[in-house]
Amino acid sequence: MPIYEDYTYTSMTILYQILRNLEEVYRINDRKEVCHDLKYSPCGAYLAVASNDNFVDIYAVESAYKRVQILSGASSFITHIDWSTNSEYLQLNSGASERLIYNVSGESIVDESDIPEIEWSSWTGVLGKQVAGLWHKYADVSDINAADANFYYNCIVTGDDFGLVKLFRFPCPKRGSKCRSFMGHSEHVTNVRWTNDSEYVISVGGADHAVFQWRFRPNRKTTPQINRVRISSSIENESNDDVMDTEDELEGIPELTLDLEEELSERQTRSKRDKRKKRGAKTVTGVEVTSDSTFAKRRDATGGENLANVPPDQSLLIKHVFGYRAHECRDNIHWLKDGRVVYHVAAVGVVLDIATRSQNHYLHHTDDIMCLAVHPEGELVATGQLGKDATVHVWDALEQKIMALLKNGHTRGVSSVAFCSDGEKVATLGLDDYHTLVLWHWKKGYKLASARGYNDKVFGVRFSPVTNNRLVTFGAKHIKFWNQTGGGLTFRQVSMGFKFKQ
After folding, report:
1. How many beta carbons lie within 10 A of that of residue 457, not counting itself?
2. Which residue from 186, 156, 152, 193 is spatially nearest to 171, judged by alpha carbons?
3. Dist CA 443 CA 451 (whole Å)
């Protein structure tokens, strides 16, 4: 049985029962290029289909999906489309950074200033002065792949090429508006959408092949808007003096997600609490800050003219991750001491309770996790990641807290990791040309020894069950036995016969 949450599994079961009995009703082949977006009009009478050949085709639903209009004029492929609530207008974004608004019945392009009271049924576009705040000063037009506005809570979620899911205020007309960024995807995010009840956000990864379900966490003081937002064309464009860079740090304090901010600050505040109290510190969302700190200034900046400097009150929390990293990985799913299962997807370490189908997530990696090992006591997990910053994390599977961060041991990535029999040491293999083998004292966070592994593929590393000073690495047509001698590693390669080399 698939591992989903109860309600998700039930929904998927019903959907499967429906899908296997579906019959094709209509097939339309009006375009030879790929279709990028399609949406039904709010009245349900029309279907708009945006294609890669610069056109939007309008089909009449009740006329057996007969094409009734063709909207032309875009100079590049169409990326996003949205209907107005009265089904009279359609806005689109194109790959040439265009935002065009069409009068559908007249098949003509109109100026937004001529329709100041227009109300949009959805907003999934990434262009326009209403969403200028999504872009920082040096952004490329292809950086943001998808967006979806929540009219109920006046916020908009985006997915970008950097693996981030971001939450902004909406509308956000001031370029470079502050946001909340959420990590988990290791590659570009291809799409993001709100569920109909506004309780969840669904994001789809590209190369990580993962689907994330995020739980929306509105601020308790936030009063949702009962009606949809009327987006007026009178919104002013920002001046160059107002441009900010959302990727910049605020006086040395990086933007953090709410959960990461709370977790990383927990240990620090214990040791610094007494000193900060003497200086009149206050606590904000689990972080102790002085009254003149950057966080305090950002918290107090609630005036209308300063909203672009303040991220939204709401946040997102990963609820469930669908997927499993099987490509180029081995031995990467294990049982824990308490009967739960640990594995990895994209840049997330997943701890799964099979009985309840609930998940907990380790979210401190910044790129694809490639390997995983469990401590002999069954409570700690070691994971290694891809990328220039090829770090190894040792973390607590019970509370998803980082225990050690092992750096500067590998380049390109970590392909395999293993604990010794007593759990004091960790061995890792790199993805560099020589598949470097590194031996770590993980509690103290330093390297004990390192050596070149092999110039062909190396699949894994294991400690001897008898002694912690002996290891074995294995891969394409070779096996090596290693001994730790002081600060170095020596090896003896097994001579394999012709039979075993095949």
Report:
1. 11
2. 156
3. 21
> What DSSP assignment string belongs to 276-312?
HHHTT-EEETTEEE-TTSHHHHHHH--SGGGGGGS--
Mean pLDDT by 10 residues, the chain (502 residues): 43 61 82 91 94 92 92 92 94 92 90 85 92 86 91 93 93 90 90 93 91 87 52 48 37 36 42 44 36 40 56 90 87 92 94 94 92 94 90 93 91 92 92 89 89 84 89 86 84 66 49
Per-residue three-class SS string for 216-269: EECCCCCCCCCCCCCCCCCCCCCCHHHCCCCCCCECCECCCCHHHHHHHHHHHH
Q: How many residues does the chain have?
A: 502
Q: Are 458 and 432 in contact (CB under 8 A)?
A: no
What is the distance between the alpha carbons of residues 347 and 362, in angstroms, rounded to a whole number?
A: 9
Percent helix, strand and coil across the chain, each to the nearest 5: 15, 40, 50
Q: What is the pLDDT of residue 277?
A: 45
Instruction: Please state the pTM of the whole predicted model.
Output: 0.75
Pairing of strands 446-451, 458-463: unpaired
Token pair for residue 59?
A: 């089909």
pLDDT of residue 392: 94
Q: Say if residues 42 and 87 touch (Cβ distance below 8 Å).
A: yes
Return the number of other C-beta atoms located less than 10 Å from residue 378's C-beta. Answer: 16
Residue written as token pair 């003509």: 108
Residues 6+ apart with CB under 8 A from 352: 3, 340, 341, 342, 343, 358, 359
Distance between CA atoms of residues 8 and 355, nearest Å = 15
CA-based R_g, the chain, Å: 27
Collapsing DSSP to helix, strand or coil, 409 comes out as coil
d(CA 468, CA 355): 36
Backbone angles phi, psi at 354, to 5 degrees: -65, -35
- The structure tokens listed for 403 are 């225990």
